[in-house]
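debug: dumping io for the single-chain case to check the tokenizer round-trip. Nothing else runs in this session.
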Amino acid sequence: MPEIKAERAAMRPAGGRLLFPLISGICVVLFLIFLAVIYAAGIELQVSDWLLIGIILLIGSCLILILPLVFREAALKCPIRIYYSVVALWVLMFAVGGVLILGAIIPSETELAERLLCKVNLKKLEVVIDYYAEESNGSYPDPSKWCDLLVKRSNIPPDFFVCRSAAPARCHYAMNPNCEPNSPGDVVLLFETKGGWNQFGGRELMTFENHKGEGCNILFNNGRVVFVKPEDAGKLNWGRKVEEAAVELKVGDEAPGFSLVDQDGETVSLSDFAGKKVLVYFYPKAGTPGCAKQACSVRDSTEELKKAGVVPLGVSPDEPNEQRQFDKEYSLGFRLLSDTDHKTAEEYGVWDEKEIGGKKIGGIIRSSFLIDEKGKLLGVWYNVRPEDTVPKAMEALKQLNTKTSGSE
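debug: decoded output
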């Protein structure tokens, strides 16, 4: 009898016996090689990367759990010690994957504490700014030297200006020059930026790097401090007002002509589109969250615009190479024009400029214009929301078509 059993065991194919542990082992080896390559290349993984790795580990652990069911015969032939090893491997992968996912989703106590300290600092600065305004006939400090003025007036500690989770610097906050004591409560007053001193400006200075790309603390004019995520940054009110612009166009006006260079270095003129409808929209800064959201909205509506006979054109003060990078990063596929001297923006009434501390600063009022085949304005939308650029144009065309059909 023992001889017969030994003979049967010898007749079993070795490949079937090793198939189950072999596949499991290959998965582990590939994962270890992946981690070794990342370590050797010195790649710094972000939170989203660790989340992805955790998901991959969970999927891998599920596959290892399913393997014995798929290759049941091979699994039954495995020595018991190999079977236990595979089970241990499954438990390890499942546990590590779960920890990585939870660690990526739930901020650590240190991260939460740093966010909270950053919020507290902004609240402290808000109290100091209010005190300054009371002592200065209701005026906020000059944005071009706001840090110096607050320190001089109130002798506040240096820690008030520092976000501990950011790279070392004197100050990690910037002031919005468009915010005044009588501005609406939802206007941004102070916001996180990269290290500097007496920094002032708008969304172009805002950074999410201080908190690993997860968000940015914002102090509003009403005293509220909110941790804003990147996807919500485009909704912030920076206090730009249409009435401050030198020009305000209206429906029926002649659309100002222009000749600007696009992302490929080609000159594009409004006259090139005679006989076609054109949607011209102005955005503040290529690559920023709100502008990316707006551009992607236009990109996703390309077919809808094409059916309506509308050519989209984006315009901003960015250089052509910045427009090219913006186009490449989001695969936009339509022309982005560089209005570096902002003359076209001024003619359309979308350039907002102020003189603060002897310096002139300005920026784009996000706006869009629908132009008909003869160069007349069919629609004018100042301070348009990023996601409303195309819908408002399509609604205007729908109303125009309804009006035309009714007159017939």
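debug: round-trip ok. The longest strand covers residues 188-196.
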